[in-house]
């Protein structure tokens, strides 16, 4: 057991068994939050992460499964999460599907998967969590993308979904204020997708980034922590964490 500060507040991070979400969970946990690691398929990783955090602080991490495209199940997910410790203070909409969609070949299924995870799911999850977040004067952080503003070529549906998530962030800030703040973080190149990738285009992206390197999940996690814990007068904003990528073409 560590002597970490514990304040008993609860954070739910969607899609957080691995990668950026897992780092976000670790950072919130280190700051004293009890954390709910939500996953869809990554049950094993979620369980390992929860065990790691519970070893640091007893009964401080739980897991919850769910597919965000199954909208009718989202109120139950929120109830399950509140049931763990009797409260919910922070919702981080992190889960996301990401793959290219070429115009002429886009199917309704692509739309449902990409918009479902990146926009529709976050909207209905935020709606389900809103009464409890309002009671707790909590907050929402949405993981958007610098490509919400400047569409990523070959990724039409993903770019549209993230643009919608920016709009959702601002709308939630208006609708849920003053009790609940809602902000977004827009990563640049943090972790490349695990699918086969084109290393020449990755080099090109880094070349066009002012800081000439990729970021790390910790850069995103500390920005989320700032928005959650240290930004009481910030709402409806999107912070780009992109090493200056959006300064150039
Ligand atoms: N990585 C980057 O450099 C980067 C750049 C720009 C924006 N972002 C944004 O930052 C966030 C985190 O990035 P990441 O690369 O760590 O994400 P990721 O690995 O691509 O996805 C995170 C998780 O989302 C979950 N997920 C996908 N579809 C879902 C669905 N329908 N229902 C429930 N969960 C679903 C998956 O969970 P399971 O594994 O459990 O199935 C996956 O592990 C995302 O919102 C992403 O768009 C990341």
Please, could you describe this protein's structure?
The chain has 249 residues and is α/β, with parallel strands linked by helices. The protein has one domain (10-188, 217-242): Rossmann fold (3-Layer(aba) Sandwich). 44% of the residues lie in helices and 14% in strands. Strands 3-2-1-4-5-6-7 form a seven-stranded parallel β-sheet, with helices on both faces. Bound molecules: NADP nicotinamide-adenine-dinucleotide phosphate. NADP nicotinamide-adenine-dinucleotide phosphate (NAP) binds at residues 15, 17-21, 39-42, 67-69, 94-98, 116-117, 143, 145, 187, 189-191. NADP nicotinamide-adenine-dinucleotide phosphate binds at residues 15, 17-21, 39-42, 67-69, 94-98, 116-117, 143, 145, 187, 189-191.
Strand content: 5-15%
Radius of gyration: 17 Å
Q: Which hetero compounds are present in the coordinates?
A: NADP nicotinamide-adenine-dinucleotide phosphate
CATH fold title: Rossmann fold
| N-to-C SSE string, H for helix and E for strand | EHEHEHEHEHEHHE
Helix and strand composition category: alpha/beta
Number of helices: 7
The CATH class name reads Alpha Beta
Query: Terminal Cα separation, in Å?
Result: 49 Å
Helix content: 40-55%
The profile of the biggest β sheet is: 7 strands, parallel
| Low-confidence residue ranges | none
Overall geometry comes to globular
How many DSSP E strands?
A: 7
Write a brief caption for the model.
The protein is an alpha/beta fold and 249 residues long. The protein has 7 helices and 7 strands. The chain binds NADP nicotinamide-adenine-dinucleotide phosphate.
